[in-house]
């Protein structure tokens, strides 16, 4: 009976370990996206020229180039 209990315990342990190993907490292709700050409160904290940025909405000048807030240059 002890041998049978040991075998059953090992099988249950292996099944549990397999389930834990195969369980994925996050999909590999999922990207963490930061929500855009579009409320009037956050618009007051826009980034100055030269600060790092991800898109145009983060910069005071609304111009994000090469991940830096820049001045908008008019080409005529």
CA radius of gyration is 27 Å
* Basic shape: rod-shaped
Q: Tell me the series of helices and strands, N- to C-terminal.
A: HHEE
In terms of structural class, how would the helical and strand content be classed? mainly alpha
User: Could you tell me the number of beta strands?
Assistant: 2
Strand-residue fraction?
5-15%
Count the domains. 1
- Distance from N terminus to C terminus (CA atoms, Å) equals 91 Å
Helix content: 25-40%
Strand order of the largest sheet: 1-2
Return the average pLDDT rounded to an integer. 75
Largest sheet: number of strands, sense, barrel closure: 2 strands, antiparallel
Spans of 5+ residues with little confidence (pLDDT < 50)? none
- Number of contiguous helices: 2
Main location: secreted
InterPro entries: LEAP-2
Pfam families: LEAP-2 (PF07359)
Signal peptide: 1-22
Give structural attributes:
76 residues; mainly alpha; two-stranded antiparallel sheet; 2 helices; 2 strands; 33% helix; 5% strand; rod-shaped
Describe the fold and architecture:
The chain has about 80 residues and is mainly α. The protein has one domain. About 35% of the residues lie in helices and about 5% in strands. Strand 1 and strand 2 form a beta hairpin. The longest helix is centred in the N-terminal third of the chain and has 21 residues. It is rod-shaped, with a radius of gyration of 27 Å.
């Amino acid at each position: 009976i002890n041998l049978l209990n040991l075998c059953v315990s090992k099988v249950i342990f292996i099944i549990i370990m397999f389930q834990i190993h195969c369980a994925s907490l996050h999909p590999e292709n999922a990207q963490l996206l930061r929500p855009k700050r579009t409320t009037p409160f956050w618009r007051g904290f826009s980034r100055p020229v030269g600060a790092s940025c991800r898109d145009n909405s983060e910069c005071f000048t609304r111009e994000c180039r090469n991940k830096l807030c820049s001045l908008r240059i008019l080409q005529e």
